[in-house]
Amino acid sequence: MLHRVKVSLKSSKDAVLRRSPASAPETRYEASLDVLDSLERRAQRVRTILQANEGAWKAILANMTDSVGSILRMFEATHPFHSTATETANIVSALEPHMQKIGLLRSLQPVHRQDESRPPLEGIQSVIAQIDEFLDKCKEMRKRASLYEERLKEVNYYLTKVEKLEATQKQDSDTRLDRNRMKLLEARQSAEDACNSFQLGVEMLERNKDVVFSRALIVYVSDQLAALKFEPLIEHEKELQDIMTEHGSLTSQKIDWSESPQMNLSNDRITQGVQGPGKTQSRFSPDASPLSASVDHSIQSSTPPPDFDPHELHEEHAPEAQPAREYA
Fold it and tell me: Where is the composition biased (Polar residues) (predicted)?
């Protein structure tokens, strides 16, 4: 009779063990692990993009500084536009501190002592810090997942040991079997606790995801607009527009690549002074015919014309007789 009761209790315990209570935690573990993988991957992507945004703004600032500085060097210090270009360069140089203030760029903060509190981060930098905290929690959940896998190995170890003892028909195997069955139950309970802890942690991440990344979007857009709405630059742009208006809308003026009208006028006056009134056109004037057209290349005869008398030319140009000078 006692033997029958003992066999009945043994069969009932075997039935409890064979139901494999660890199968339910394993299913929940796999589902939670998929969620963790997705959250961590997307959070890393957002952080990378926000970090790249800082690099993009730095590149824009470097380009603006180089461009404005190069244009400034086109004007001498005495040029009327030099002061305007200098003011533009100063405003552009003030953009970086402005972006650091709103948190779009990281500021070079001095090293603080342990008893000094660091100033709170603003803007995108605060969002990146919050995402880093989110990723740290993901790492913590990875550790919980590793702990569950270790507990699961213990379950498999004792399960294998119990199966071997059950297959043994030795007299002392019952005591060892009962002891290992208890260890198997304890291992399964530890594994289930580890799985529950992991699952609760992933659910916590899933809830906080909405807060972290909705704030990331809002702050990102706000910081971009705040950088574009830099008040000194907007006011200076109005001044530049006024300058263009005063000078007859510089943007609509066409560039005249012809020579200066003043230079042409002075050349015309010089040409007129050389020619004088009633004289023939100079061959060096713009309207003169080519030099080759003003030269007669025909061969002329050395024989003088028939009506030409060389004695007339001599008599006509003979010097007059000078009166004799009287010397005292």
Answer: 261-284, 291-302
d(CA 195, CA 145): 7
Q: Quote the CA–CA distance of 328 and 326 in Å, as a whole number.
A: 6
Taking 90 as the threshold, does the pLDDT of residue 105 lie above it?
Answer: no
pLDDT higher than 70, residue 165: yes
Q: What is the pLDDT of residue 302?
A: 52
What number of residues does the chain have?
A: 328
Residue 136 scores a pLDDT above 60: yes
15 pLDDT more than 80: no
Q: Region 155-164: what's the mean pLDDT? A: 89
Burial class (CB in 10 A: 0-12, 13-18, 19+), 8: exposed
Provide the residue ranges of all domains of the chain, joining segments of one domain with +: 20-107+120-246
For residue range 50-60, what is the model confidence (pLDDT) as tens digits? 989 988 999 99
Rg (CA), the chain: 50
- Degrees (nearest 5) of the Cα angle 229, 234, 239? 180
The count of C-alpha atoms lying within 13 angstroms of the C-alpha of 201, restricted to the half-sphere facing its C-beta, is: 22
Fold of 20-107+120-246: Substrate Binding Domain Of Dnak; Chain:A; Domain 2 (1.20.1270)
